[in-house]
Input
Amino acid sequence: MSRGRKIGIIFIILGILIPLVSLLRVTGYDRSKGIIKNIYNVSVVIIEERSTESPSKMTKFIPKRFPYRFILALGVFLVFIGIRRLDLSKKQQGG
Output
């Protein structure tokens, strides 16, 4: 297996695993809504809000949630890069 093929497979695996692993921290899912509405409204929790503690100066500027659609777009992009890398390695081998 060539180096380009290994890199392509790694990109594809990362493109699948990153969105799947981030699903563990997702909030905002609603069963009554469709898939597009859920992808648009779902977000990944970065910092859990605690009402008892006063926020420090640094945590004021860190977002508490990150939209899941950006992580999903990153996954699609990585899969695309991996497929392209596999295609280029196939052309370099002459097949």
User: Anything to note?
Assistant: The longest helix spans residues 68-93. Residues 26 and 44 are 4 Å apart (CA to CA). The radius of gyration is 19 Å. The longest strand covers residues 43-45.
